[in-house]
């Protein structure tokens, strides 16, 4: 499978307002709804730290917003769509806004479908197998994307700190220059609260390989984030929620996908290994470290 390197400059993360004027929205409309309009329509903005997205059906616009939403997610969507078009299906992003309260508003295309989580129990074996095959092809395509050969690192795509939720309670760290540096840091997090004199050589560190590849990683690939058609034959319409995505060691996607579902879940037991390369050795270390860190 042919690899590709994305060299186009990313949209500027420092901008408080960004319109993607070449997107389909601006072929029909002149202006995105304002943050004030979004706030006025939100039912839970004052009661939830993660408000539900607001939908403007007549504009084909869904607005994901809140204090924890990041411009990096909009950059992720923009880059994946730019690099792969429909080979890796994601919502088209139309722009973003950052208001005075530092809420980020991401404006994107509405995907009309159901989550795979919602439909899973009603699907027959043939539809499940078909969706698994589609997901396998999507993930193979996504992993074709390579970093600039002169700028290898592990971090978010805008060269900032990692956005994975397992690190949410950890101090933000600059991008890592290579896999070894990331693995050393990750393996050391459970001991980071100990005085240096009490830290020990971790016997599980050897389970994390330092000689793999750095790959663009979704980081939250569970069925709630896979939108599929509600009619047979089932089709994957989009992979959504790219807020945790970034450049990670090649084992990270598998570990995070297992981490997002129950041990005895059919999805985990029978299907994940069919669309991602199994990395059980790495997962053994991953689950130990995340549990010791208190990540949930």
Question: How is this structure best summarized?
Answer:
The chain folds into 2 domains: 7-109, Phosphorylase Kinase, domain 1; 113-296, Aminoglycoside phosphotransferase (APH), C-terminal lobe (Aminoglycoside 3'-phosphotransferase, Chain: A, domain 2, Alpha-Beta Complex), CATH 3.90.1200.10. It contains 9 helices and 12 strands.
What does this structure look like?
- 30% of the residues lie in helices and 15% in strands.
- The protein is globular.
- The chain has 2 domains: 7-109, Phosphorylase Kinase, domain 1; 113-296, Aminoglycoside 3'-phosphotransferase, Chain: A, domain 2 (Alpha-Beta Complex), CATH 3.90.1200.
- A 5-stranded antiparallel sheet has the order 2-5-6-4-3, sandwiched between helices. Strands 7-10-11 form a 3-stranded antiparallel sheet.
- With 296 residues, it is α+β, with helices and mostly antiparallel strands.
- It is built from 9 helices and 12 strands.
Break the fold down into its secondary structure elements and pairings.
Layout: E1 4-5, E2 17-19, H1 25-28, H2 35-41, E3 54-56, E4 61-66, H3 71-84, E5 93-98, E6 104-109, E7 114-115, H4 116-119, H5 125-142, E8 145-146, H6 179-188, E9 214-217, E10 226-228, E11 236-239, E12 246-249, H7 252-259, H8 266-275, H9 280-293
Parallel strand pairs: 1-8
Antiparallel strand pairs: 2-5, 3-4, 4-6, 5-6, 7-10, 9-12, 10-11
Helix pairs in contact: 5-8, 7-9
Protein name: Phosphotransferase enzyme family protein
InterPro entries: AGP_Transferase, Aminoglycoside_PTrfase, Kinase-like_dom_sf
Domain Aminoglycoside phosphotransferase: 82-275
